[in-house]
Amino acid sequence: MKLFDVYPINDITIEKGAGSNVWDDKGTQYLDLYGGHAVISIGHTHPHYVKRLTDQLQKVGFYSNSIRIPLQQQLAEKLGKVSGKEDYQLFLCNSGAEANENALKLASFYNGKKKIIAFKKSFHGRTSLAVAATDNPKIVAPVNETDNVVFLPWQDEKALEAAFKQYEVSSVIIEGIQGVGGINVASESFLQKIRSLCDANNAVFIADSVQCGYGRSGKFFSHDYAGINADIYTMAKGMGNGFPVGGIIIAPHIQPAYGMLGTTFGGNHLACAAALAVLEVMEQEQLIANAAKVGSYLMEQLKQLPHVKEVRGRGLMIGIELPEELNQVRKDLLFKHKIFTGEAKPNVIRLLPSLALTQAHADQFLTAFRDELLKY
Ligand code: PMP
């Protein structure tokens, strides 16, 4: 059987990882500033993570959600403590799309309304409602097309107010920092505006934190910069450091009905062990503060480099916009300098490294990047 390649792939086989480095099958070492698309939050093969998962696998890896799994409650408590959202309820699932799917459904169940406000260039996943709220016609099939989703221009307060007047809005879904859309940071005032319009209209504020959440921005949720609370936060990616874990946290005024939320695999013993290990390491090693510190250092330094048109982001979620003639630089960073980066658009390099990235790693990248830029 032939494998369907879901992405254009680089012909590299990764066999080993440790911290912010990975090695290919020939033993070549790479610096990983992509983190497998924002998934590697605490670094590759962190010893505490490996031990917690291995120990759990030796006890019990899976049973089912029809029995009590104390690890789930431990995870909810830890997550409440680290995120500061202690009065929320946690529902565990397996991916970002599933988290958004459930959040959008739950919002509509809660207020009985249908219209969803989403934004241009948003990305919320590839399942039914999540893809309908994603601004990318390439990945929507006819069956997902729904007139329940209204796409508004990014950060346009007037359009937002008008949409609330025109429609019975069920929910607004927004990434605190758009990831796939090119690293666009939502302003504090825009997030506050959404909050006040949702309050005034009994609409649900859904903070898609799948990519920008979990400490990546230098705060637990990037929406925290605006000093507001969303009604539902959706999470995945960095939550399990590579083990598939997703979840939503739900504010106390929203009470899901029994049977509405559920999944076979969500919250299994291994997933909880992985997610707990991530939060434990984040706390012990103060990784959120590290993301803020190393991230702002990196952004400041990047702004000084030649040809760099714009540097956007927060913490360790950074977009570097280059002139289009420099689209080759990302490939050269990989093949000549052995540095993995991500792409937001062909001319926007996206950095999504482990939150444990050191200043020395940042400097290694800056030196290589400067060398390449100076060739133009
Ligand atoms: N929301 C955002 C903001 C994302 O970046 C992604 C994945 N790129 C998703 C949702 C979907 O997550 P998953 O691939 O785990 O379904």
From TrEMBL:
<dbReference type="Pfam" id="PF00202">
    <property type="entry name" value="Aminotran_3"/>
</dbReference>
<keyword id="KW-0032">Aminotransferase</keyword>
<protein>
    <submittedName>
        <fullName>Acetylornithine aminotransferase</fullName>
    </submittedName>
</protein>
<dbReference type="InterPro" id="IPR005814">
    <property type="entry name" value="Aminotrans_3"/>
</dbReference>
<dbReference type="InterPro" id="IPR015421">
    <property type="entry name" value="PyrdxlP-dep_Trfase_major"/>
</dbReference>
<dbReference type="InterPro" id="IPR050103">
    <property type="entry name" value="Class-III_PLP-dep_AT"/>
</dbReference>
<dbReference type="GO" id="GO:0008483">
    <property type="term" value="F:transaminase activity"/>
</dbReference>
<dbReference type="GO" id="GO:0042802">
    <property type="term" value="F:identical protein binding"/>
</dbReference>
<dbReference type="GO" id="GO:0030170">
    <property type="term" value="F:pyridoxal phosphate binding"/>
</dbReference>
<dbReference type="InterPro" id="IPR015422">
    <property type="entry name" value="PyrdxlP-dep_Trfase_small"/>
</dbReference>
<dbReference type="InterPro" id="IPR015424">
    <property type="entry name" value="PyrdxlP-dep_Trfase"/>
</dbReference>
<keyword id="KW-0808">Transferase</keyword>
<keyword id="KW-0663">Pyridoxal phosphate</keyword>
<comment type="similarity">
    <text>Belongs to the class-III pyridoxal-phosphate-dependent aminotransferase family.</text>
</comment>
